[in-house]
Design goal:
Rossmann fold, 5 strands, 61% helix, alpha/beta, 140 residues, globular
């Protein structure tokens, strides 16, 4: 069975901005291009990146970045399946996290995938509690 990842917005931002951990994301993207693994990302998590760049820079830069993202070997999830919907609701209610964070976590759990992230602040408590059910792949 092929290794599967769900990409969090902060990990993709690290890659796009060549921050610490970018090399780890790049390695996994290379594996995906060679069909050695699968990478998923929910469209709502891509929205986090798009609106942040739109707000901080411009529509043009947001559009350019979106085009870059869509050219990567990432499978974009553009619908919320019922099991992901319910698990995201449970995670959001339990841990009082953002909607986007609850969705990336639920996608990883339901797909039995590792979540690629940098977000220790939000996810460390969840890693301690849900570590058996949600596998974290920290890039830094």
């Amino acid at each position: 069975m092929k290794e599967t990842f769900v990409l969090d917005a902060c990990a993709l931002i690290a890659f796009l901005d060549d921050e610490e951990g970018a090399d780890k994301v790049e390695d996994i993207l290379r594996k995906a291009r060679r069909n050695e693994c699968a990478i998923y990302m929910n469209k709502l998590n891509i929205l986090e990146i798009y609106y942040g760049i739109f707000r901080e820079d411009s529509k043009e830069k947001a559009e350019k970045t979106l085009s870059k993202i869509l050219a990567l070997p990432i499978i974009v999830i553009d619908r919320l399946k019922d099991d992901v919907f319910k698990e995201a609701g449970r995670l959001k209610a339990t841990y009082k996290i953002s909607l986007a964070d609850s969705i990336v976590l639920a996608e990883a759990k339901i797909r039995k995938a590792s979540i690629l992230t940098t977000d220790h602040h939000e996810f460390d408590p969840i890693d301690k509690e849900e570590g058996e059910e949600i596998v974290f792949h920290w890039i830094r």
